[in-house]
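Milestone M4 deliverable, item 7.
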Amino acid sequence: MFIFAKSNSIIASIPPESIPIIIVIVSIIAFTIIIERTIFFWKLKSVTIEDFRKVKEFILEKKWDEAKDYLVSCSFGPTTAILQTGIEYKRRDSKFYEDEMKSEGYRQILNMEKFLTGLGTIATIGPLLGVFGTVVGMIRSFAEGAGTKGAEVGISEALITTAMGLAVSIPAYIFYNYLVRKKEEKITEMENFSDQFLQLFRGDK
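Output delivered:
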């Protein structure tokens, strides 16, 4: 018999509950990320066209403080942070306002991408952990022999880990795509309003 199928093999030495425990730990991490990132994006308030026009009016009148205060009062998020940066450096008459806005944009993107890679990884490895548990369980059942209690434990382990792996990966994958979509929407908003701001600062019509 193949060495991994023996009762004293490496597979037999793995406790049946070990892989389910790993999947539970991974699921806790995944759902923590989902809750944290969902709340993060839910708190963001976009800049509307009307509010942006009002801010531009303040800028054209050189009312820098009024522009910043109004922007903060009506919106909250990455776009607000970038526009505030642009207003502040333009008020100082700094020639590096464009570079500062780009730097702030990169910081905001990194902030929005926080933990998303981990969530995507969990969505990918969830089914793999389930398959691994299935393989281990089936090997264990064959090693113990048909009709024995050990065989029943192995089959139960195989089915449970498969279900647990899918239960973790499916919501993780759904929320990963949702959160990535929210991030892309915010990036599009950032780019759109930043370009208009830069045109305004350069004196373009």
